[in-house]
Amino acid sequence: MVEDWEKLDSEEIANYRIFKMRKDVRRSPRTGNEHSFFVLESPDWVNVVALTAENQVVLIHQFRHGTAEITLEIPGGMVDPHENDPAEAIRRELLEETGYAAEEIIHIGTVAPNPAFLNNRCHTYLALNARWQQEPQFDGAEDIAVELVPIAEIAGLIGNGRITHALVVAAFYHYDNYLKSK
Fold it and tell me: Per residue in 128-138, pLDDT tens?
């Protein structure tokens, strides 16, 4: 049976704008040996499957520096410290990145993006009856283009490799489960 590892020490190593890095020292319950682990501390993230009244998904094209590629994704971002509910972050991110607002926001799932070295969660929401409200309000490091795609085409975009972001694929899994539960 797997057991928790006792934490012997924890030290912040770096503090960046979007995450902190810490080094934890833990003892293996199986061997008794001490090991060091590096953890990225990040605020929770949110993403949203935003559907228009015509059953089109609000997608975004965005350059991603980690892969140095333009990706096709759903809107999302970090939960700000003042936001008590991730749904607040969804409303803000959807409007800021796309100019769209929605009549109804429904939580459809949560995942741990990578529990091997990240301490946060990604909360996925469904936004119903999304409609364009205003011009997007990008921050200085964003350059985003919006595209509306029929929901029926999403599986094909994942299958053919146009949508590759793991958290986006997980979001559409949550969306499918939501539909099955109705």
Answer: 999 999 999 98
pTM for this predicted structure: 0.95
Q: What are 27's two structure tokens?
A: 């003892």
Structure tokens at 28: 């293996």
Which residues have a Cβ under 8 Å from the Cβ of 75 and sit 6 or more positions away? 47, 48, 50, 58, 60, 93, 94, 97, 98
In angstroms, how far is CA 137 from the centroid of its own chain?
19
- Per the listing, tokens 């949203």 go with 48
- Topology of domain 45-181 in CATH is Nucleoside Triphosphate Pyrophosphohydrolase (3.90.79)
Strands 122-132 and 45-52: what pairing? Answer: parallel
User: What contacts 80, CB < 8 A, 6 or more positions away?
Assistant: 43, 89, 92
Residues with Cβ within 8 Å of 156's Cβ and at least 6 positions away in sequence, in order, are none
Q: Indicate the domain borders of the chain.
A: 6-41, 45-181
Q: To 5 degrees, how large is the angle CA 67–CA 73–CA 79?
A: 95
Burial environment of residue 163 by CB neighbours within 10 A (0 to 12, 13 to 18, 19 or more):
buried
